[in-house]
Amino acid sequence: MPLPAGRAARRAAGRAAGRVANRAANRAANRAAGRAGRLPALLLALGIGCAGTSLAAPPAAADPVRGSQRQVLRTLGVAAAWRVTKGAGATVAVLDSGVDPRHHDLAGSVVTGPDLTAGANPRGVRPRRLHGTYMASLIAGHGHGPGRSDGVIGVAPRAKILSVRVILEDGEPGFRGFNSEPRFENVVARGIRYAVDHGADVINMSISKDRPTEQERAAIRYAVARGVVLVAAAGNDGAGHRDGPYSYPASLPGVISVAAADRGLHKASFSNRNSLVLLAAPGVDIFGAGPGDQYWVGRGTSQATALVSGVAALIKARYPRMSPALVTQALTSGAVRRRGRGYDPGMGFGVVNATRALAEASRLARHRHTAAGPGVQDAARPAGAGPVGGRATAPPPVRVIRRDTRMITLYGTIALVSGGCAGAGLVSVVLLARRGRRRGRQERPAGEHQEPGEHHEREYREPEESGAGFGGPGTRAGRRAARGIRGGTGRVRAETPRSRGETGGVLGETGEVRGETPGVRGETGRGRGEAGGGHSGGPGGADDEHARAGAPQARRRQRTPT
């Protein structure tokens, strides 16, 4: 059926206007592509990269900007995820440098919050809002033109953006003062609390700092306790480092730390590598929107963080009551990793994938965050209050034992003193025993300290004087006496060398002793002769002859030269 002329004219004018708009968008995209790599240094904020799988690609784009996003969107698997949800009903707070709400790819999706950096810039200086607009377009950009087929489209195109300005860009005049003045130290913590109190489901923080504050830790606990998911960039200082460094707030408990992946879905060279990285997303040559309907291309963990925040927004839109812990589990379980690879400090659990993450969230949504059922203790109730669904019973009273610290100190002191006294007594006993032993040695009788030679001389000479009593050398009694004397001589010889020289019948060990020995032997011979002579008149004539025969031998030994 032909249309009325007026209506046909209006439709023709609309088509002409659409073609003009498309040409303008194409020219803007071409200018953006020509500026590739000219993104300010601030765009090197933080992010995570992961390996991804290829799913069905989105419809063909009408302009170069959307076409440049095709590979990234395919890696994230958003085409199948958008058949489940596009993020309607979810709010993502972007804590950044501010968002341009009039950009045609974000128009109608941005709620502007407070500027917590007020006073850092001189009066009259307008914020640039480049970095914040760039991140917001990656999260919730909805494009423009017929069918919204032109411009940037985000991961959750129907989500809302809550903009909270907490940083300055490096091109702003107050940048140095903002980073050094103590009054701006806790702006991030204040931004987190503001976002939680104003309905944020996800908080994107494509920012980093060297160390956190106690207020930031408390603000993160505050957000997690109220079911808000926090995503932050892992950092861009990884070049030349095998591990580390750590950046904050990404490295704080309760925050999803994101790294950046390159085009080959390996860890980007600049991305930080540490044990707190959970996920990765594409972070190299990422197209996004800038203020004033401009487009920019850049690289960093900031871009990767924004993409992960978009996937988290899809999960929260589909399952708004899901806790941050389960959202994190869905993201990490649905991530795509290389075959045979487990956790990697550079890429976390893999590259985020929207379709797989939603499937994991669907499985987790059938379960409670805490266990329930017969015999299960409710974590929200005190111990002993009974199982979930059972009859409540009063918990037994807690017995408090108060210890008397003064008595503990007293008994401890007594024990230490007693131990010291026991040790001192033991040392005294040992010293007294040693002293008594030395005194006993000094007080022995004088006979016990005579020289062994003197004692032997006495033993040896007694038989000479009383040789008649023993009998001559030839008699049996004399021989027994001689053997007894020699035995004594042997014992004395073993005690001292001095007795060897003075004892008869014993050879000396030194020349000096040998010189004395013949004389001793000569005297011994005479002694034997005299002893024999004592018995010459008796019946033992043989002994007498033996004595006379021994005398010349003794005399010959006396003449032996020394």
UniProtKB/TrEMBL annotation:
SUPFAM superfamilies reported for this sequence: Subtilisin-like (SSF52743)
Comp. bias intervals (Basic and acidic residues): 442-464, 492-501
Domain of life the protein comes from: Bacteria
Matches recorded under InterPro entries: Peptidase_S8/S53_dom, Peptidase_S8/S53_dom_sf, Peptidase_S8_Asp-AS, Peptidase_S8_subtilisin-like, Peptidase_S8_subtilisin-rel
Positions with biased composition (Gly residues): 530-541
One MF annotation (Gene Ontology) recorded for this entry: serine-type endopeptidase activity
UniProt entry tagged with the keyword Protease: yes
Coiled coil: none
Name of one Pfam family that matches: Peptidase_S8
Region (Disordered): 370-396, 437-562
Positions of transmembrane segments: 408-433
GO biological process: proteolysis
Enzyme active site: 96 (charge relay system), 131 (charge relay system), 302 (charge relay system)
Keywords: Hydrolase, Membrane, Protease, Serine protease, Transmembrane, Transmembrane helix
Compositional bias (Low complexity): 379-393
Sequence ranges assigned to domain Peptidase S8/S53 in this UniProt record: 87-350
Family: Belongs to the peptidase S8 family.
Protein name as catalogued: Peptidase S8/S53 domain-containing protein
